[in-house]
Amino acid sequence: MVHRIHPVTKMVWVLVYIVLAFTTQNIFILYGMALFAIGLALLAGVFRPLLKAAYLIVPVGSSLIALQVLAPAVERPWTPIAEIGFVTLYGDGLYYALVLLGRIISSMLLTLVMVMTTHPSDLFLAFSKLKVPYTFNFMLAMTLQLIPVFQREVGIVLSAQKSRGMKGSGFSAVLPSFVPVFVGAIERVQQLSVSLESRGFGSSGNKTSYRKVTSRTQDWVYGVVGAVAMLGLMVYSILQPRLWNLSDIVVFAPETVLVTFSVAVTLFSFVIVGALFLSLRKT
Amino acid sequence: MSKRNPKSTAPDTIDTDLAIKVEDAHYSYPAGNVVALSGVNLEVDKGELLGIIGQNGSGKTTLTKLLNRLLKPTSGNVYVNGMLTTPRTVQEMSAHIGYVFQNPNHQLFARTVKDELEFGPKNIGVEEADIAERVEDAIEFFGLQPYIEEHPYRVSFPIRKLVGIASVVTMRPSIIILDEPSTGQDHQTTRIINSLMRRLAEEGTTVICVSHDMPLLADVVDRVIVMRNTQIISDATPREVFADRELMLTTNLQAPQITEIALGTVTPLGGPIALTPAELADDLENRVKKGAQK
């Protein structure tokens, strides 16, 4: 069902989602949006790939929580809840860390679900129907398609480096590979541009496509209902200050803040140490 | 050195005169669990000139990447110069086995051609004086003198290909793998590559050439491995392989044209299974002379 929704409807949802996520500071709305996106992912059968892409949330989330508890992004005075050596932990930070994290998670999850359930050609066909310039449309399409190509090129170049005895890994190995990858990229782009021109790219006149993206009544319904609901929620929460920001209502116990901070710091440390270990170890 | 699998019972080194020994090697690419090699066994003597042919996807490149440890076999053992490859790194193996990639653009990193030729020997700790001698030797052999101060990407593609090969030759590994060395090359460059392979083999280097260029292989190699569907299905001399029409048909390969002509003309009359135009021409000349004498 999600796959068949019109790409423009999905784009509207993503846009409105992002607007709502970045205007509200209500963690129930934010995490409710995230759960809704997960529900869509389950419905669309893309939950497992979504989970893989969502690993990024762990380092981002843990660092946000750790930093916010140490230095909340709110006006002073802050409420100290514990001291570890010379470091003071503040309870106010946890709510705002959850707000920031909620914004990232809800926007990211819905965007990923929409990207995973939309064929790129359909998306760009939809863009063209919205009168987005054809060349801009094509640039976006090519960028998405060339990313895995360049990833593969980097892998091959790194193999070639290792085959000639080059030691080191991580950034010290990647840096010399920039030259062959960039040269390869430029050569590929040059060849692509010649190929495009030879096949009529840039000619005037209407562009046609063998793909058909038709909008159904339910696409309009989803789009309008979704947009109205989210915008309505946003307006309502602005007009009702108690709904806009729940930091006065949702107060975390000091033990909760301490435990959450400890878990966040531990996770973040693991991520940093793991990354350092992987970059320094010999393969 | 990378970690050795504690469950592995294969000896770390074996006492052997073979350059390469592959024992029941299997490989599956992790993405999509694609089987690329199934139960491959191979022995290559030192100084041998070996050609590997097969359709795209038959496992040729995967096999060669197992040899220099770019890939680790899913099961089975690969020994290079008696050393098990699995617990070793690509960098360690690079001193023993050189790999020339099909696209030279993937190999070239340095600012000048000369720096490129020095890159490999420096990495493996060759003495400065030796590096200079190796680089001079390579420059002379490959005719790179006019280009030594040029940026590798400023020279033409055929020259870049020679630079790519030369940059591995200067490491003087005892085994060299060439992946499609003549693809996209003009006749002159192909002849240089041809004579390089012969020269290396004469000097005792084991040369493995993966190629679709059947005339090149027919002219140079001593032995041909035919791969199909992740397995080695034939291992014989070029003459035996290219004369086997059924093998060529089932593997969707084509013997060199000159061999096809010979098989259709002189070979049934007792003539050779010609691998080169010169062989066929010699036989035809002899036949004409004999015919004239009668």
Describe the protein's architecture and organization.
The complex is a heterodimer of chains A (283) and B (294). Chain A is mainly α and 283 residues long. Chain A has 2 domains: 1-119 and 212-283, no CATH class; 133-210, no CATH class. Chain A has helices spanning 7-23, 27-44, 47-53, 57-70, 92-116, 120-129, 134-163, 171-198, 217-239, 241-244, 254-280, and strands at 80-84, 87-90. A two-stranded antiparallel sheet of chain A has the order 1-2. In chain A, α4 (57-70) packs antiparallel against α5 (92-116). The mean pLDDT of chain A is 81. The model of chain B has no long low-confidence stretch (mean pLDDT 90). In chain B, α3 (113-123) crosses α4. Chain B is globular and about 65 Å long. Chain B starts with 17 loop residues before the first strand and ends with a helix. Chain B is built from 11 helices and 10 strands. By secondary structure, chain B is of the alpha/beta class. In chain B, 38% of the residues lie in helices and 22% in strands. In chain B, the strands form 2 sheets. A 6-stranded mixed beta sheet of chain B has the order 6-7-8-3-9-10, sandwiched between helices. In chain B, strands 2-1-4-5 form a 4-stranded antiparallel beta sheet, covered by helices on one side. Chain B has helices at residues 60-67, 90-94, 113-123, 128-142, 157-169, 187-202, 214-220, 238-243, 245-250, 257-264, 277-293, and strands at residues 18-29, 34-45, 49-54, 75-80, 83-84, 97-100, 175-179, 206-210, 223-228, 231-236. Chain B has a domain at 256-294. The interface between A and B is medium-sized, with 21 and 27 residues.
